[in-house]
Amino acid sequence: MTDAESTGERDTDTDAWTLPEELPAVREALIEWYEADHRSFPWRETDDPYAILVSEVMSQQTQLDRVIEAWENFLDRWPTTTALAEADRGDVVRFWSDHSLGYNNRAKYLHEAAEQIEGEYDGEFPDEPEELQELMGVGPYTANAVASFAFNNGDAVVDTNVKRVTYRVFGVPDDDEAFEAAANELMPEGRSRVWNNAIMELGGVACTQTPRCDEAGCPWREWCGAYQTGDFTAPDVPTQPSFEGSRRQFRGRVIRVLGEHDELPLDELGPRIRVDYTPDGTHGRDWLRGLLTDLSDDGLVRLVDRDGSTVASLQQ
Ligand code: SF4
Questions:
Q1: CA–centroid distance, residue 202 to ligand 1 (Å)
Q2: How much is the average pLDDT of 151-180?
Q3: pLDDT of residue 6
Q4: Which of the residues 28, 56, 134, 177 is marked catalytic?
Q5: Given ligand 1 and candidates 160, 164, 213, 231, which is best to mutate, with the most ligand atoms within 8 Å of its CB?
Q6: Residue 2 pLDDT more than 50?
Q7: How many angstroms is it from 185 CA to the middle of ligand 1?
Q8: pTM higher than 0.90, yes or no?
Q9: What distance in angstroms lies between residue 224's CA and the mean position of ligand 1's atoms?
Q10: For residue 158, what pLDDT is reported?
């Protein structure tokens, strides 16, 4: 898809959202952020579809940190689909329950999928999401994950993390079709492996339910509607995340903006902190003065009254 196409008209009612015109820069910023640093999971270091399938099936029920050991043990014991297909199904199920991986049916399905690969596909995984769905217990999400991470041949992943991110950043409405359209428009063509990893990482470590925009160095701050307004609600975050969480964000922003100026009066600082700043509004002078007073009590900011208005600067 070209960038012109990607920002073109859509024809459903839930399309009252747009992606920024500078999509290539938006994409590059995320990929660079991901490549500079990310959580290291061993299945991110391989493109073996079998190993990736095992990690995907295990992580459906279990926290990622706990999956690592189970995944390594599983692959030590049954390193290939050939080995798994030849295993006794009871041993596979026992392994599953010994590692508290939940829903033992998944172990059964994995064993059956290995038998399919050996019996129907001559030991070779198919590389298309549609065909991967023919494997036992493999739904659209898992099929797409294997196609992306093993073959770099998937569509955009649309999970709760991706929904939360696109809702906050681009104002995509809480509607499955809209999320899917946005996720696919965002993904650079032919780069599903790095892209899906990167956007899920963003949702997993930065754009979490209580977001960590500044601490995590979120690469999308300049385009993010939530960052600009301070409204961090999302489909899975129906009420504003903890007061402290968003207050911490604004404190960080005040320090950053004041670091770029010698001093600023309240009404010049306010709009640089949040786009919905209006001097007499809910998030106006009183709100900002409260924030600055806390920072001043903490010895970080200096406030002086000059000609009837308050001026803020960093404490030297
Ligand atoms: S700026 Fe904050 S809210 Fe926006 S995408 Fe980044 S982490 Fe999420």
A1: 8
A2: 95
A3: 41
A4: 56
A5: 213
A6: no
A7: 19
A8: no
A9: 6
A10: 92
